[in-house]
Specification:
Radius of gyration: 18 Å
Strand content: 5-15%
Strand order of the largest sheet: 3-4-2-5-1-6-7-8
Largest sheet: 8 strands, mixed
Helix content: 40-55%
């Protein structure tokens, strides 16, 4: 089971946009069963898929802090066949305090997501908060690969290098030296001298992992999120859909698996 984490300690880097649409692409174009896990207090991943996260009685916080709550109690289906969502909301702000006394506090997410493997998910995609605290540490412990969205703005390279160092440190501390940044995705791309210069610096720093397709601006992507839809549902022929599809294909890598029949969802 692949576990793909979208991480950057800076906000406004398009983490949620990439996580949501990559998860949807994997389900739609590669016929995988995908679980999108939101761990940000804003709950934007769920909102971007049409969920009213404010009204849900239980979310990822309850799964991580209450051992009586099961994965199936909090997972919600999306409108995309094969894509389920584990939503988050403001309660996640209390997570570090609630689990502070737990010796395995950094492993809570990994431990609880063993149920995802048992449930038959092919991939888990994590949308992380804009910080490098305990929640993000949980994501890194649970992940098998890390994608770093980098806004092409001033100091972007420094921030990306810090994330890469943190990933390496966590991998070493957890006895998982293979954990690394597998893809760096340039975002907020515009044809300016500054953006071009930053892109060249990223290419020099991450020659093997920089995505060849930067994510530029397309209003259709924002419109899709405002309607609670992925870009592939809302505007499948748009420039945004082409960019996000190309990026998702790079993140996925390798040949497409054989198509398989989906099991009917029980009501």
């Amino acid at each position: 089971m692949r576990r793909i984490a979208f991480i950057n300690e800076k906000g406004g880097t398009c983490k949620t946009t990439l996580a949501v649409n990559t998860a949807a692409w994997l389900a739609k174009e590669r016929d995988l069963r995908v679980l999108l896990v939101d761990l940000d207090t804003q709950g934007h991943a769920g909102k971007a898929l049409g969920l009213d996260v404010r009204t849900l009685s239980r979310n990822v916080f309850h799964l991580l802090t209450d051992d009586s709550v099961r994965l199936e109690d909090v997972v919600r289906p999306s409108a995309v066949p094969g894509l389920d969502v584990l939503p988050a909301y403001k309660e996640m702000a209390d997570f570090p305090v609630v689990v502070a006394a737990d010796a395995r506090r950094a492993h809570r997410l990994a431990d609880r997501l063993e149920a995802a493997r048992e449930a038959g998910y092919d991939a888990v995609v994590f949308d992380s908060p804009p910080s490098m605290g305990l929640t993000t540490r949980n994501i890194l412990v649970a992940a098998t690969e890390v994608v770093v969205p980098v806004a092409l703005t001033y100091l972007a390279l420094d921030g990306c290098a810090e994330v890469a160092d943190t990933v390496r440190q966590v991998g070493e501390a957890e006895g998982r030296p293979e954990l690394s940044v597998t893809k760096v995705v340039p975002t907020l791309y515009r044809k300016t001298a500054l953006a071009t210069a930053i892109l060249e610096r990223l290419r020099a720093y991450f020659p093997d992992s920089l995505a060849t397709t930067p994510l530029g601006y397309d209003v259709k992507v924002d419109e899709a999120q405002s309607h609670g839809k992925t870009i592939f549902e809302y505007a499948p022929r748009s420039r945004g859909a082409r960019m996000l599809s190309a990026i998702a294909a790079e993140i996925h890598g390798g040949p497409a698996p054989r198509k398989r029949k989906r099991a009917a969802r029980a009501d």
